[in-house]
């Protein structure tokens, strides 16, 4: 990849990560931070983000898969790494070779992993996932069905060293009564499991439960770690979702593209595939060198999304193409080929957010950031 501030590019303010981690720490008190850098740190660049977190003092990282863990190890990250998702048997050798901690997504999975470790005469480190209500992975522990024996037996496997226990919130982002009741029930169930383990003479190890909204809305629950993903990046899933705290986050990502062509079109002339924009008056159109293959969702076409040119707001017009899209710059003087367009970030006195794109795409920042194109370089903020 040619890494240059041209065509389409992302600028990352790595210095702001420390500020954002400070904001998280204020919310959770003495609880430590496990930085979740899965999916290329939500599209922000996993290695650079992890190293900025490391410099701040983060000593535990969470990823989704073994290949993500190996990327961190190959980049010199020697801190603890927890794989939150599934690792297939063919890759189990990396767990002990690279000192990577595996989540136990079920008791059956834990038993298979233990048999493998025993056959290879090794110890594999793990955290026990408890399913308190997400019903995705983990050993069931819900009011309707409590598999406490399986959790206890997981700790007794002779070639698995269970160093911690965790669960996950599905509705901690919702302050409504039903969601809050459900989340508080999850907290009670998780605490109940921890107490039961202790009553059976088992050290549960490191405890962690809170995702980003669990941090924002439930703050200091007293566990060993919390697991923010978007928060160190200065984002929430949507800045219009109400939260029960007032952190001062700084978004670290800005997205830019160049103007490639400027032309005037006359009434009756159309723009882009489908002819969804037809000029009703003389219109100055600029083509941007960015499209849906770069992560700008085609779904936001013709919805009035605005970008910044010379610090002025300009609407997208016509369908977004794979590599290009068009904007109306009629009211902006002296626009020319090579000019910089800001799609996310600041330009002049104006500001455009990732959230604005996300809402028009009917999704969340988690998805939009994670799908920013691999061909768009992540560069240091100038």
From TrEMBL:
Belongs to the alanine racemase family. The active site is at 38 (proton acceptor), 273 (proton acceptor). Pathway: Amino-acid biosynthesis; D-alanine biosynthesis; D-alanine from L-alanine: step 1/1. The keyword rRNA-binding does not apply. Substrate binds at residues 136, 322. It comes from Absicoccus porci. Its cofactor is pyridoxal 5'-phosphate. This is Alanine racemase. It is an enzyme of class 5 (isomerase). Pfam families: Ala_racemase_C, Ala_racemase_N. It comes from the Bacteria. Catalyzes the interconversion of L-alanine and D-alanine. May also act on other amino acids.
């Amino acid at each position: 990849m040619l890494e240059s501030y041209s065509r389409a590019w992302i600028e990352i303010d790595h210095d702001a990560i420390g500020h954002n981690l400070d904001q998280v720490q204020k919310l959770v008190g003495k609880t430590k931070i496990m930085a979740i850098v899965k999916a290329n740190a939500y599209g922000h660049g996993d290695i650079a983000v992890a190293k900025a977190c490391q410099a701040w003092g983060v000593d535990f990282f969470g990823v989704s898969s073994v290949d993500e863990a190996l990327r961190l190890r190959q980049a010199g990250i020697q801190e603890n790494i927890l794989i939150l998702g599934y690792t297939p048997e063919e890759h189990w050798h990396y767990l002990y070779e690279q000192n990577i901690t595996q989540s136990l997504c079920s008791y059956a999975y834990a038993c298979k992993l233990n048999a493998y470790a025993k056959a290879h005469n090794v110890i594999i480190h793990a955290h026990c996932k408890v399913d308190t209500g997400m019903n995705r992975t983990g050993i069931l522990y819900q009011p309707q069905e409590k598999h406490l024996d399986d959790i206890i037996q997981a700790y007794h496997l002779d070639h698995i060293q269970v160093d911690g226990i965790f669960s996950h919130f599905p509705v901690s982002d919702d302050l409504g009564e039903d969601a809050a009741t459900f989340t508080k029930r999850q907290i009670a169930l998780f605490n109940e499991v921890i107490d039961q383990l202790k009553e059976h003479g088992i050290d549960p190890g490191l405890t962690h439960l809170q995702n980003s909204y669990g941090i924002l809305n439930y703050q200091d629950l007293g566990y060993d770690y919390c697991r923010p993903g978007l928060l160190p990046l200065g984002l929430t899933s949507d800045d219009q979702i109400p939260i029960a705290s007032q952190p001062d986050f700084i978004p670290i990502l800005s997205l830019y593209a160049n103007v490639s062509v400027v032309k005037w079109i006359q009434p009756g002339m159309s723009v882009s595939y489908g002819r969804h924009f037809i000029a009703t008056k003389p219109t100055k159109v600029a083509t941007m060198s960015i499209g849906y293959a770069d992560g700008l969702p085609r779904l936001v076409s013709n919805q009035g999304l605005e970008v910044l040119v010379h610090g002025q707001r300009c609407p997208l017009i016509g369908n977004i193409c794979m590599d290009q899209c068009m904007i109306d710059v009629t009211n902006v003087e002296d626009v020319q080929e090579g000019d910089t367009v800001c799609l996310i970030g600041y330009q002049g006195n104006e500001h455009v957010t990732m959230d604005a794109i996300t809402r028009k795409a009917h999704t969340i920042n988690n998805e939009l950031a994670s799908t920013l194109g691999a061909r768009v370089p992540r560069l240091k903020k100038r």
